[in-house]
Specification:
The chain is mainly alpha-helical and 313 residues long. Helices cover 70% and strands 0% of the residues.
Length: 313
């Protein structure tokens, strides 16, 4: 498939926003239960603001994927049957609840945690809707797997917790001791689940062949002509057009950028007295790696129609 960069930005930005909000609420819940000291209000206000900005940026990026942005409101019409329509409802709901959560801390309201818990539920629903847009497509075997949902959740939470650790280093240093190990665990879990998905997809075999597609059951069947003398929608939208060498490079790059380097940097920052600069680098590198990972996620999917268009590919 051709990776749409607007959707790559949407899923990675919103994923980090959701993970950050989850980190804030879990930390507040732990403090309310007496398991750790309550961070200052500035930490929650800053974290909510960053989460809101990331989510809004992701929402703005999604409009560039629309052929007619002025008709975007129609996307919610099929919410009973379409995961995409449900996502279109889940994103603004998550943003509204994140705003209310930050506002509750800004005003020092006693029920801020209640807003946070509802916002976490909205984040979970958004993760589900976003992942199921792809996981429900049974003809794309690389996506039609529980790994799709697991990876969306773990990678979003890993980047969100790394960002929460960075914000804590600037506004609530004692919280770094809690958030840094949580970010490390999520990075490791995300890496393991992504490696498992890569191993699964490497073993897949297309369910369709040239024989089944054409009805010609000859043992040796070769396609000699693509059938078009110029580009077409099918050739633009359903194949990335990149070489196997570039795909392998992106794969190695996202494994390093999204997992290995952030793991090393966050682990190193955990033991530092002033880790903000290292954590900032960790998040930037991690986000760049997640952009590459999400690009690879789309490029890895092999659309069955490419059996016909393989000559052009």
């Amino acid at each position: 498939m051709r990776p749409p960069f607007s959707v790559v930005l949407l899923t990675t930005l919103c994923g980090a926003a959701q993970g950050l909000l989850i980190a804030l609420v879990l930390l507040e819940a732990g403090a309310a239960a007496g398991m750790l000291s309550m961070p200052p209000q500035a930490f929650f206000i800053a974290g909510s603001a960053v989460s809101l900005v990331l989510g809004v940026l992701g929402l703005v990026a999604s409009f560039f994927h629309l052929g007619h942005p002025e008709r975007a409101w129609r996307a919610v019409a099929q919410w009973r049957t379409s995961w995409l329509s449900r996502e279109c409802l889940a994103v603004p709901s998550f943003l509204l609840l994140t705003f209310l959560y930050g506002l509750a801390h800004l005003l020092a309201l006693p029920w801020s945690l209640a807003f946070g818990i509802v916002a976490v539920c909205a984040a979970a629903v958004l993760f589900l809707c976003t992942a199921m847009i792809y996981a429900c497509l049974r003809f794309l075997q690389e996506w039609a797997s529980p790994y799709t949902l697991v990876n969306f959740v773990l990678l979003g939470c890993a980047s969100g917790f790394t960002l929460a650790t960075l914000i804590a280093a600037a506004s609530a240093p004692p919280a770094v001791a809690v958030l840094a190990p949580a970010a490390i665990v999520l990075i490791v879990l995300g890496c393991l689940s992504r490696l498992a998905a890569l191993a699964r997809n490497a073993r897949l075999h297309p369910k369709s062949t040239l024989q089944t597609a054409t009805g010609i059951h000859a043992r040796k069947l070769e396609q000699k002509s693509q059938g078009f003398t110029s580009s077409s929608f099918n050739m633009r939208e359903f194949f990335h057009g990149k070489s196997p060498a570039m795909i392998a490079t992106v794969k190695a790059g996202f494994l390093l950028g999204a997992f290995v380097i952030p793991f090393v940097l966050v682990s190193f920052a955990w033991s530092m007295t002033a880790p903000a600069a290292v954590l900032a680098v960790a998040f930037v590198v991690q986000y760049a790696g997640l952009l590459a990972e999400r690009w690879f996620f789309f490029a890895e999917a092999r659309h069955p129609q490419n059996l016909y268009y393989q000559r052009a590919a």
